[in-house]
Specification:
Arc Repressor Mutant, subunit A, 5-stranded mixed β-sheet, binds zinc ion, Nucleotidyltransferase, domain 5, 3 domains, single chain, disordered N terminus, alpha/beta, 14 helices, disordered C terminus, 15 strands
Length: 398
């Protein structure tokens, strides 16, 4: 079999039959050819041709399996576990991560490359590209694509970062184009707003597998919202939908990175809690503060050790989180609402308290329809989901 170059893949993947097969394998796991024919609604001979093309591109593998105790051996098709890899990039306000995963979304944590987020934009792009270029040169597996989880407002049509209160060095930059250029134009790069990435990861690999109507609220560094409605990510006219974090909830609140005051993001996120606790400790117990900025990991340890008490700060946090969750439920009527945040680990029962506050504020019929759970995914998986997204999604006519 002649190995196909990565240049052959984009034209292959524009073919809808191949995309349909990849999508079914992704959603359901390994399948027989007969199952693929039935599930995709594509004719048997066409499925066979498409699988052949996918095998040649090394995107799928076939395996001989025994069917039942006395059944004859048969072949199943599954997403490739070797020979190809995906790269995920998480851009965070303080730390960036670059990691590889296979097509089934299993992260290779030995490959994880972590570095402090450079404050200069050019340095940031170069720091991300450097480990990927090394992998290009040394890995036997082909890199199928690079997915990037980017915080802030991101215009999906122009691929321009509009404004990112937490990573302002990306403001106005064409992150996708610049990263593609730094990788010598050899790799596909897909950027997703970080919350959209979390939502997609939950849909592909997490508890939202197969769900068509759900929302994910990210309350970690900033506050982001991803909404999947009838199987499609709600993007808005230019990809800016879902910016719930910059709704004003407190007229005299603290200044937000967006320029406004008292946004949900400055009242009801992990970062907001850390800022408020840091301010109080600086005024009352400065000796407790570490040299580095506070992290949720540090705060959890301090609370567990009994050196810091956050009871007072948690009261408004729970109230404003109730406002945020109720807003999502009232506006989007999701079947499931996933919430991603680390503050819930600060004490047992905190998430339940937020649910109780939400139930006081949400419209009863919408709340009855909705299950609210903590998200299991993470931003690394969100970036990997961004990398695999173009391989499996139909390109809708524009
Ligand atoms: Zn704001």
């Amino acid at each position: 079999m002649l190995p196909l170059t990565s240049h052959a893949r984009p034209s292959l993947l524009r073919r809808l039959n191949e995309q349909s097969i990849l999508r079914e394998l992704q959603a359901r796991g390994p399948l027989s050819r007969a199952d693929l024919t039935r599930l995709t609604g594509i004719s048997g001979p066409t499925v066979t041709r498409a699988i052949l093309a996918l095998l040649e591109a090394r995107l799928v593998e076939e395996e001989e399996v025994k069917q039942g105790l006395v059944g004859r051996p048969g072949k199943i098709v599954r997403l490739a576990r070797s020979g190809v890899t995906l790269v995920g990039v998480v851009i965070g306000s303080r730390v960036c991560e670059v990691v590889r995963a296979n097509l089934e979304g299993q992260l290779d944590l030995d490959s994880l490359h972590t570095f402090p987020t450079p404050t200069d934009y050019r340095d940031l792009i170069e720091a991300i590209a450097e480990p990927i270029r090394t992998w290009q040169a040394t890995l036997e597996a082909d890199i199928l694509g690079v997915g990037v989880s980017l915080p802030g407002l991101f215009d999906t049509r122009s691929e321009r970062s509009i404004t990112s209160p937490n990573v302002p060095q990306t403001n106005g930059q064409l992150v996708g184009d610049d990263l593609r250029a730094a990788l010598n134009g050899l790799l596909d790069v897909t950027i997703l707003q970080e919350c959209d990435g979390l939502g997609l990861a939950e849909q592909l690999y997490g508890e939202a597998k197969g769900e068509r109507d759900f929302a994910i609220l990210d309350i970690s560094e900033g506050m982001g919202l991803g909404v999947v409605e009838r199987g499609h990510l709600l993007e808005g006219h230019s990809g800016l939908a879902g910016e719930i974090g910059h709704i004003t909830v407190r007229l005299d609140g603290r200044r937000c990175g967006c320029g406004n005051h008292g946004c949900l993001e400055t009242e009801a996120t992990d970062s907001a809690l850390l800022a408020i606790v840091a301010q109080r400790l600086a005024a009352t117990q400065p000796e407790l503060l570490p040299d580095e900025p506070l992290t949720m990991h540090w705060l959890r340890k301090a609370v567990e050790a009994g050196t810091v008490d956050v009871t007072a700060e948690l009261v408004p946090l729970i109230q404003y989180l109730g406002v945020a969750l109720a807003a999502v439920i009232n506006i989007f009527n999701p079947k499931r609402l996933f919430v991603y945040g680390l503050c819930f680990d600060l004490r047992p029962g905190l998430f339940d308290d937020v649910l109780a506050e939400t139930s006081r504020r949400a419209l009863a019929p919408s709340l009855r329809d909705c299950t609210i759970v903590r998200a299991r995914g993470n931003k690394q998986l969100g970036a990997i989901a961004a990398a695999i997204h173009p391989l499996t999604q139909r390109h809708e006519p524009t």
